[in-house]
Amino acid sequence: MRLSRYFLPILKENPKEAEIVSHRLMLRTGMIRQQSQGIYSWLPMGKRVLDKVNAIIREEQNRSGAIELLMPTLQSAELWQESGRYDDYGKEMLRIKDRQDRPMLYGPTNEEMVTDIFRSSVKSYKSLPLNLYHIQWKVRDEIRPRFGTMRSREFLMKDAYSFDLTKEGAIQSYNKMFAAYLRTFDRLGLRAIPMRADTGPIGGNHSHEFIILADTGESEVFCHKDFVDFDIPSADTDFNDAEGLQAIFDKWTSVYAATSEMHDEAAFDAIPEGDRLSARGIEVGHIFYFGTKYSEPMGAKVQGPDGKEHLVHMGSYGIGPSRLVPAIIEASHDDNGIIWPASVAPFDAVLINMKPGDELCDTACDKLYQALSNAGKDVLYDDTDERAGTKFATADLIGVPVQVIAGPRALANGEVELKDRKTGARETMTVEAALNKILG
Predict the structure, then answer these.
(1) 286-302 burial, b if ≥16 CB within 10 A, otherwise e?
(2) Is 419 exposed, middle or buried, given 0-12, 13-18 or 19+ CB atoms closer than 10 A?
(3) What gap in Å lies between CA 32 and CA 26, rounded to an integer?
(4) For residue 63, what pLDDT band results from cuts at 50, 70 and 90?
(5) Rounded to 5 degrees, what angle do the CA atoms 309, 310, 311 make?
(6) Whether the Cβ atoms of residue 331 and residue 340 lie closer than 8 Å to each other
(7) What DSSP character marks residue 234?
(8) Nearest to 197 by CA among 183, 211, 185, 187
């Protein structure tokens, strides 16, 4: 993509309304634009990142055996009345009526709808276990939306819902998502720590929030420092191996980790002082087993191997992609701008033509641009007439992992300069060597 033809509305000054780093940088880099309080348009560069986040989430959900569908944003109030949540949910639910005066709502979540889909289609235990997920926009009318897309009224959510014949089966489904989430966040360049969350009246140990550590996190978290070195489940993890999945769960829940709401001061103090870690954290995912909370009032049953009808045991598993994007920025930035992990960067490289119109620069840049593009790399080619300082500042601000700097002096010797955005390291090499290094 040539920058001269791209839509990248960069702001020179920091927006006054932005309270945290990610909100400021997402506005400055032209990733998002606020349309009204807590509601944003995702502009081209932001959409690129969001799509890459979604792709990784989707790959890991599919790897675990979950099956994708797509449910509507608008939901009938009848389903929520059936579950008993319609009157209890509160003002965060945005309620409307259609032209037939039927009560409708903008879905903040999808437990009722997916339970309705399940009960109308699945009748036998032989169809279980089943995990259905989608990635869809949701609305919660927050009383105080803030921090950009970190806490907005309209947000993108990956929500998955598991169905099992027994609690034991449901725990295995829970462990699948537990492992899948560890893999997902690692691939996004994040070290997420699973912390036990409140299970409400259901009780038990099967509700976890996945927290990344960041100075601007919303809440205080406490954990054992061993989490930093725990091994992430590998790509060849067998999601049908119940014992292997349980071992992963047991390992990652073997030492202390809690948000401020679940914090046990005595248990934390029992950890050797050098092993304690207290910091700020951002929630990026939540998984929850809730048993028959929805299947019972909505009559979601299957025939078991004994010939009798059984209520299915369910769980829900959420990740917010539109929240993950600012979370990644909070965890990876410096004074000059964003530092994207390669897996979600909007472009693989930014190619900087230091002197557009110069035959040597134009020829070399065209060659590099074409070769990288043909090899499947996403390249942002800065072919603008801006000053060198502006070009460098833009490249640092948008955080693309590799910068290829092509100037007439170096090109006279057949060379370009490569800059690693994360480390700042610069290296001069031939055009061919630069191509080989970027292509790996």
Answers:
(1) bbbbbbbbbbeebebbb
(2) buried
(3) 6
(4) very high
(5) 130
(6) no
(7) P
(8) 211
Tell me the C-alpha distance between 118 and 153, whole Å. Answer: 28
Angle at Cα 44 formed by Cα 42 and Cα 45, nearest 5°? 95
Beta-carbon count within 10 A of 285 CB: 25
Strand partners, 221: 259, 279
Number of CB atoms found within 10 A of residue 415's CB: 17
For CA atoms 222, 224, 227, 228, give the dihedral sign.
positive
Q: Any bridge partners for residue 403, and if so which?
A: 350, 419
Q: How confident is the model at residue 201 (pLDDT cuts 50, 70, 90)?
A: low
Dist CA 45 CA 327 (whole Å): 16
* C-alpha span between 417 and 430 (Å, rounded): 9
3-state SS, 103-130, equals: EEEECCCCHHHHHHHHHHHCCEHHHCCE
Identify the three-state secondary structure at position 30. Answer: coil
Q: Which of 22, 29, 35 is nearest to 7 (CA)?
A: 29
Q: Are 416 and 432 in contact (CB under 8 A)?
A: no
The model's pTM? 0.95
Distance CA 148, CA 37 (A): 9
As given in the structure block, the two tokens for residue 208 are 């976890």
pLDDT in tens, 431-440: 999 999 999 8
In the chain, the amino acid numbered 192 is A
CA distance 320 to 310: 32
The tokens for 398 are 């948008």
For residue 370, count other CB atoms closer than 10 A to its CB.
12
Q: Is the peptide bond before 233 cis (omega within 30 degrees of 0)?
A: no
Sorted by sequence, the CB contacts under 8 Å of residue 359 that are 6+ apart come out as none
